[in-house]
Design a protein that fits this description.
The termini are far apart. The chain has two helices and 26 strands. The strands form three sheets. Strands 4, 5, 6, 7, 8, 9, 10, 11, 12 and 13 form a ten-stranded antiparallel beta sheet that branches. Strands 18, 19, 20, 21, 22, 23, 24, 25 and 26 form a nine-stranded antiparallel beta sheet that branches. With about 450 residues, the chain is mainly β. The protein has helices at about 375-380, 425-435, and strands at about 25-35, 45, 45-50, 55-60, 60-65, 70, 75-80, 85-100, 105-120, 120-125, 130-135, 135, 140, 150, 155-170, 175-185, 200-210, 255, 275, 280-285, 290-295, 300-310, 315-320, 330, 335-340, 355-360. The chain is globular and about 55 Å long. Helix content is about 5%, strand content about 40%.
C-alpha cells in the first residue's frame, strides 16, 4: 500500500475587525468512511484532525458486521499542519477494495486528498491524487468527472469527486479546500438504510491563512487562540453592487435568529435566518451567479448553494423541490426561480420555511463559520413583483428518483369574476380578460 503524500495542513484563525498583526493558522481533517443515518449516531472509520501531524494505517472495515452496506479491505488516513512564515497543510484518506450495498457500487481504490498553502504573497491549493480507480456503478464501469452526479436506480444518487476550493485575498491570503471522493445519498430506503442516509468515502479538508505581520504578544493570563471560530460573527461586510433580491417570492415572515443556540448543527449555533412562507412558494436566486452543491444532506435536506459574480456564497436549505435551473454549474440571474419552500431535512414537521445563509467572499476562509447575519441584508433587498420559470418532465430533486418529492407550485394571483354585474359597463370586458377571451389584452408575465 502506498503512503499518501502530505503537505502541511490548515485552519484559519481570523479575528474579524482586529487591527493588530496576527499569526496565520492551519487545520485539517480526514476520514475514510462515514455512514450518516437519520436519528442515529454517525458510524465510520477513524477521524483524524489537526493541529499536529497524524497518520493511521487501518485494516479492513465493514458496516454492519456482515459488510452488506460498506466493506473495504483497508483504510489509510493522514493529516498534517504547519504554521510559520507560511501556513500550509493537507489531509488525505484512501480506501481499497470498496463495496457498497452488496456490490451495487464497487471500486479498486478511492482517494480523497487536499492541500492548502498560504504566504504573505498569496494562497493556493489542490486536490492532489484524488480519484477513483475501477469504479463500477450498478454493473457499469464509470470514469467520473469532478462533481459528477450518478443516478442509482430509483433509490438514490452518488456524487463522484465532490470538491470545492476557494482562495481568499483579504484580510490575509487564505485557502480552503475539501473533497469527498464518493458521496452516496439515499432518496428511498435501500440495503437496510432509510431514505435520507448518506455514505461518504474518502473525505479530506484543509484550510490555511497567512500571517498579517508579527505575531500578537500573548498576555500571561490570555487563553490560547482558538483553532476554529466558535462564536457568530458580528461583521456585515458589503457584498458588492446593488441588484440583490429577496430569496422568497411574495409574502414571507422572518426574524433575526442568527447566532441562536442549535445543538444539532455544525458549530452549535444558527448560521442564518429562517424565512417562513407557504409550502411550495418559489425561491429566487438573490443575484446573478452559479449554482453548486445541489442535493441532500441530513440537516439541510434538499439544499443548494449559489455563488455570485463577486464570490459571495448563499445557502438555501429545507427545499421541497428544485426548479430546472437547480443544476450544478447552472448560471442564473437575480430573481430566477431555483426551488420551492419546504420542510426537508431536520425541519421535518416544522412550519415550511427557507433556511438562508450569507457567506461573504472575504470570510470564506473561515469555512462554514464564516457566515454573517442575513437580517440587515434581507431588509434592504428588493422583492420581485413577478416570477417566470418553466416546468419540466421528471422535475424532481436531483432529477433522479421517482420517490422524491415533486416540484412545488404556488398560486401567484387570482381573479374572481363570479360577482361581476351586467349593470357595470366594464364587467364584460373584465370577465373576458380574466378568461383569456377575444377581448383580453396580452397576458403579463407572472
Amino acid at each position: 500500500m502506498r503512503i499518501l503524500p502530505l503537505l502541511c495542513a490548515a485552519a484559519l484563525v481570523l479575528v474579524v475587525g482586529a487591527s493588530a498583526d496576527r499569526p496565520g493558522g492551519a487545520t485539517a481533517r480526514a476520514w475514510g468512511i462515514r455512514i450518516i443515518v437519520p436519528g442515529q449516531a454517525d458510524a465510520g472509520s477513524r477521524v483524524l484532525t489537526t493541529p499536529g501531524d497524524a497518520l493511521s494505517f487501518d485494516g479492513a472495515y465493514a458496516y454492519p458486521a456482515d459488510g452488506s452496506i460498506v466493506s473495504v479491505s483497508s483504510v489509510t488516513t493522514s493529516v498534517s499542519s504547519s504554521i510559520g512564515s507560511q501556513s500550509s497543510g493537507a489531509a488525505a484518506a484512501e480506501v481499497t477494495k470498496l463495496s457498497l450495498f452488496n456490490g451495487d457500487l464497487t471500486a479498486t481504490t478511492v482517494t480523497g486528498e487536499t492541500h492548502a498553502l498560504a504566504t504573505s504573497a498569496g494562497a493556493s491549493g489542490d486536490t492532489g491524487t484524488t480519484g477513483i480507480d475501477g469504479l463500477v456503478v450498478l454493473g457499469k464501469q464509470v470514469t467520473p468527472a469532478p462533481n459528477e452526479q450518478l443516478p442509482l436506480a430509483d433509490w438514490g444518487y452518488a456524487v463522484a469527486l465532490e470538491q470545492k476550493g476557494q482562495a481568499v485575498p483579504q484580510p490575509a491570503p487564505g485557502y480552503h479546500d475539501f473533497v469527498t471522493a464518493l458521496d452516496v445519498f439515499l432518496t428511498a430506503p435501500h440495503g437496510g438504510l432509510p431514505a435520507g442516509s448518506e455514505v461518504q468515502i474518502g473525505y479530506a479538508e484543509a484550510d490555511a491563512e497567512a500571517s498579517t505581520g508579527a505575531p500578537l504578544p500573548a498576555a500571561p493570563s490570555s487563553p490560547p487562540l482558538p483553532q476554529r471560530l466558535v462564536k457568530p460573527l458580528t461583521a456585515t461586510p458589503t457584498l458588492g453592487e446593488n441588484g440583490y433580491v429577496f430569496p422568497v417570492y411574495g409574502a414571507a415572515a422572518f426574524a433575526d435568529t442568527f447566532g441562536g443556540l442549535r445543538s444539532d448543527v455544525p458549530g452549535g449555533w444558527h448560521h442564518g435566518d429562517d424565512i417562513f412562507a407557504p409550502l411550495g412558494t418559489p425561491l429566487l436566486a438573490v443575484a446573478h451567479g452559479t449554482v453548486f452543491s445541489v442535493g441532500w444532506n441530513r440537516v439541510g435536506g434538499w439544499r443548494l448553494w449559489l455563488r455570485d459574480d463577486k464570490g459571495n456564497e448563499f445557502y438555501y436549505a429545507h427545499l421541497s423541490a428544485y426548479s430546472p435551473l437547480a443544476v450544478n454549474g447552472a448560471i442564473v440571474d437575480a430573481g430566477d426561480v431555483v426551488g420551492f419552500v419546504g420542510d426537508s431535512g431536520d425541519a421535518r414537521g416544522t412550519p415550511a420555511h427557507l433556511h438562508f445563509e450569507i457567506h461573504p467572499v472575504g470570510l470564506l476562509a473561515l469555512g462554514y463559520d464564516g457566515a454573517v447575519d442575513p437580517t440587515s441584508y434581507l431588509h434592504r433587498w428588493t422583492h420581485p413583483q413577478s416570477v417566470r420559470f418553466e416546468a419540466a418532465a421528471g422535475w424532481l430533486p436531483g432529477g433522479l428518483s421517482a420517490t422524491a418529492p415533486r416540484a412545488g407550485a404556488v398560486l401567484l394571483q387570482e381573479s374572481d369574476i363570479s360577482g361581476a354585474s351586467g349593470l357595470d359597463p366594464g364587467s364584460l370586458q373584465r370577465a373576458a380578460e380574466g378568461l383569456g377571451g377575444p377581448l383580453a389584452q396580452p397576458a403579463r408575465s407572472r
